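name: query_chain
kind: protein
chains: 1
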Amino acid sequence: MKHLKKTISSKQSRTYKKKDKKESVEELRRERDAWINRGLDSNDPPELRAAYERMKQQGYEEEYTRQRILTCYSYPMFEKIINNTPFDYERFLRLLRDLPYIEPGQAIKGMDMELFDKMNARGED
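structure:
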């Protein structure tokens, strides 16, 4: 677990301390930016570069543009994890093609609402 620091007490029991919230957010932002930069540098997929350039040309700020691109990735990834199915790469590409016109909730339209029930059930365990 990268986001947790492991410490050993004098009794040799393992405890975990959460990193400072600000530090964690910055770490996630760096990872997001590295992932997007790799896609832009390699032009893989080309839809990522097209979405990025389209949003920049339309005047969207850098941070917002990167957040929206990651949102396009996170919805199919969420479904993959919850349903234990392969990542829907075509859906990811469709969402990128729809940027910047896709609203945050639009990406989950048509998503089986059982996903949310499964997610909530996991949280109750």
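note: Residues 1-17, 109-113 have pLDDT under 50 and may be disordered.
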